[in-house]
Amino acid sequence: MLVVASPVEVRELSRCARKSGRTIGVIPTMGALHDGHVSLVRYARADCDFVIATIFVNPTQFGPNEDFSRYPRTLEADLELCRSAGADLVFTPDVTQMYGPTAQTSVRVSKLSLPFEGAHRPGHFDGVSTVVAKLFLITEPDRAYFGQKDYQQQLIIRQMVIDLDFGLQIVTCPIVREPDGLAMSSRNRYLEPDDRRIASEIFQTLLLAESLALTSNLTASQISVRMQERLRSIEGMELSYAEVVDEATLEPLTDRPLEAVALIAVRVGTTRLIDNMRIRFSNQSP
Ligand code: PAF
Fold first, then answer.
1. Which residue, of 173, 199, 219, is where some domain finishes?
2. 37 in active site
3. How close is the Cα of 29 to the center of ligand 1, in Å?
4. Overall pTM > 0.90
5. Residue 40: its pLDDT value, please?
6. Strand 89-91 to 50-55 pairing
7. Cα(18) to centroid(ligand 1), Å
8. CA–CA separation, 127 vs 130, rounded Å?
9. Which of 172, 188, 190, 266 is most buried, most CB within 10 Å of its CB?
């Protein structure tokens, strides 16, 4: 497995792989890898001939009061996980290699970036779409792999790929969960043991939404209220949002659609956690 920090060198290696007829898969990450990331590398390995994982803690997607400086950096362990999951190349640029001193261009996916995480983390998605666009331009992949856990992020990246004619396929992979249902996240390592127990209630609330959609005749907005009530009742948890929304536009739903996505964001201790579940409604009228 190659480990390369230079964008120019990575582009050359990717072009070389393409010239020899190989398909290229990329997995953009910020490191602190866990089994969720490992599963993305494995999906790419199964689909593509040349697998590139990228590890870059992107400063432009962190707000001034967020955790950029304390974000976990575990490069040696990350490289080992990439190697064992079958990556061919890991791209590990530093900030100066990704952003020159005169950098002033950014990519904004206007509408999808506004609600939910966008409203709570102003500028976050501009940082994400800009760095992902740069990673696509450097690695020139056929396919790029993202986790469903960052549901809004993968929708935004899909829209960016369409709008900017990147001509590559976005593959959204299932959420990998701990045995108690907590979605794997690099930020879970910030959780104290008590917080960790409280955090598992997020998944229970998503299961509640799923079951209400299937077994009651509540509308999407009524299910949102039930989720909010449940999360507000949990001591040690601060609700940011809990909504059942349109799975493509993230717009509010008032009736009972066929399918939707339930989105949750909460703060537990000092850690902000997000999760989601795609849900189906049974064929009952409200
Ligand atoms: O999901 C992440 O880890 C990051 O937002 C990404 C896509 C690697 C961009 O920095």
1. 173
2. yes
3. 5
4. yes
5. 98
6. parallel
7. 25
8. 5
9. 266
Q: Would residue 83 count as lying in a domain?
A: yes
Domain enclosing residue 128, as ranges: 2-173
Ligand 1 pocket, residue 29 CB under 6 Å: yes
Q: Mean pLDDT over residues 72-92, rounded?
A: 98
Cβ contact 223:213 at 8 Å: yes
Q: How many domains does the chain have?
A: 2
Ligand 1 atom nearest the C-alpha of 61 is 10
Pocket flag, ligand 1, residue 243 (CB < 6 Å):
no
Q: Has residue 286 got a pLDDT over 80?
A: no
The two beta strands, 24-29 and 50-55, are parallel
> What is the Cα 246 distance to its own chain's centre?
18
Same domain, 191 and 134: no
Q: Which atom of ligand 1 is nearest to the CA of 28?
A: 8
Q: What is the DSSP string of 222-252?
A: HHHHHHHHHHHTSTTEEEEEEEEE-TTT--B
88 is written with which tokens? 């061919």
* CATH assignment at residue 240: 3.30.1300.10
Residue 132 near ligand 1, beta carbon < 6 Å: yes
Same domain? 10 vs 124:
yes
Short-list 75, 72, 109, CA closest to 189: 72
* Locus of tokens 């809990």: 242
The alpha helices in 140-184, defined as continuous H runs, are 151-163
CB 136 within 8 A of CB 168: yes
The string of DSSP codes covering 72-120 is ---HHHHHHHHHHHT-SEEE---HHHHS-TT-------TTTTSSTHHHH
pLDDT tier, 64 (very low <50, low <70, confident <90, very high otherwise): very high
Q: Average model confidence (pLDDT) for the chain?
A: 97
Neighbouring residues of 186: CB distance < 8 A, sequence distance ≥ 6: 30, 31, 32, 33, 34, 71, 72
